[in-house]
Amino acid sequence: MNKNKSKKNNQKENNSGSSTINWFPGHMAKTKRKIKEILPLIDAVAEVVDARIPISSRNPDLNELIENKPHIILLNKCDMADNNITKEWIEHYRKNGISAIALDCKSGKGINQFKTTVKEALAYKLEAYREKGMVGKPLRIMVVGIPNVGKSSFINKISGKTRAKAENRPGVTRGNQWFTIDKQLELLDTPGVLWPKFEDQTVGEHLAFTGAIKDRILDTEYLAVKLLEILSENYRNLLENRFGELDFSVDSYELLCQIGKKRGMVIRGGETDTERAANMIMEEYRNQKLGNISLERVEKDA
Ligand code: G4P
């Protein structure tokens, strides 16, 4: 099914204007079943998340779903995130026994590190294969991620020119998408779609900030005010670099008005055209005109 069409069908506005996402539990159950089936055949799971929102851009059931399989987190779109915060996330995952790397699938930054990280994380397996004389048996990694995190971009980038769809293998469900990366590494695309935790309002908002959920689902003015709340807490310097000196003693709605006025977005009576101001802020944030910004941080004691 066309990806955009499927997104449209799954997201609806309710009467109060807030977000209701009608995803289909049946589809989710099928995906989970397929993942369970495939689990014995893979050596590790590589989870692509959006480095700007590593909490919201996850499927809430994944950890449980993959049981004890080695887990590698790929903080993708790191070109848009705050480098220091991405480093904190990597450290946080490592402390919890999970390998993590920063990736930029637009430029390809971090792609080579993926291969090294997988081989390091699974060195014991490669060694066991060698001992058993199974030299040449590749490591098989399942790549998962909610829509829009850049899973396809990652697979395309890492497959590069040598991209080849491996044949069906004994014991491997027909139709699964395998990609041979090199002699020691094969990737499997998720058999199905994993959704984020839509029912959580903060998750919905954060996905909307980054554009993973379309604007019309949530009111743009509401979104811009919410985004300014986060930015005025952590990125005052970036806001002032972009819009000039600001008074942060006011609430985020007033901040939106200030910013709009600075851009000459004024309607009759001298008031800010808040709708235009909100659209401008969302557009500038998404196009990275405000700078590198991470919207979710590691909690201090996490
Ligand atoms: P998916 O399979 O997980 O659904 O995601 P997909 O690869 O389709 O990527 C979703 C969007 O994110 C695409 O943008 C893609 O170019 C962009 N993207 C993926 N990885 C990165 C990254 O590391 N950095 C940045 N900045 N962007 C990334 P799009 O606007 O939907 O399409 P297009 O711009 O490629 O035409």
Overall CATH class of the largest domain = Alpha Beta
SSE string: HEEHEHEHEHHEHEEHHHHH
Low-confidence stretches: 1-22, 162-174
Per DSSP, the total helix count is: 12
The dominant shape is elongated
Main β-sheet, spatial strand arrangement: 5-4-3-6-8-7
Bound molecules: guanosine-5',3'-tetraphosphate
**Major sheet characteristics:** 6 strands, mixed
Could you state the CATH homologous superfamily of the largest domain? P-loop containing nucleotide triphosphate hydrolases
Instruction: Compute the separation of the termini in Å.
Output: 39 Å
Strand proportion: 5-15%
Number of strands: 8
Q: What is the CATH architecture term of the largest domain?
A: 3-Layer(aba) Sandwich
Fraction of helical residues: 40-55%
Oligomeric grouping of the chains: single chain
As a whole number of angstroms, the C-alpha radius of gyration is 22 Å
* Number of discrete domains: 2
Class by SSE composition: alpha/beta
Mean pLDDT: 86
